[in-house]
Write a structure and sequence with these properties.
The protein contains 9 helices and 8 strands. By secondary structure, the protein is an alpha/beta fold. Strands 1-3-4-5-7-8 form a 6-stranded parallel sheet, with helices on one face. Strands 2-6 form a two-stranded antiparallel sheet. The mean pLDDT is 90.
Length: 205
Amino acid sequence: MQPQVNPHALLQHPPPWPSWVNVENTLRCNLDCIWCVQAQVGSTKSGVDMPLPLFERIVEEVLPRVSRLSFSVAGEPTIAPRFLEFLDRVNTLDITTELVTNATALHRPGLLDRLLPRLGLLIASLDGARAPTVERIRAGAQYSRILEKLERFQAARLARPSASRPEFLIAMTLSTANIEELPEVVALAARLGAVRDLDVLLEAV
């Protein structure tokens, strides 16, 4: 028998708030990666963007109680039409943000200026060190332009005072399609200025 929960006790002694929350600000993505479950089921094309009024409620009711905020991992957060407005609201709070991104939209005007003030960690997904590999695995990607955008991000990151400089990581989904490029991706991460070890996800593809 399942233990009974006393709702009155919960009201008197509510559980603590989490320190970290993930906000799915969009379910859409501009790439079609071969290993992506969301792309396979079509949600990255048919998915929706979070409306601003809903995010405003999250800002008012949730974010003041947490210390870290991560944006969408089921879609590409930076392509959401109102992402810059979301960042403007976040920048009014004492909170640290995290971003996992395919880096294709880091060039959006005003994005880095709004992103960097509260950013604690950026993880760029890059599944190879050669253009043919990346563009085959991540359909729609332009490898050379992604590198340019990551270099621009690194320059903006280094321009900040060291105390407020976000961490920068490269993530690689390792599969039979790219495993031989792992040493090259490690070298590329170092060249781009990723500050810690390479994040590797093993995937049976």
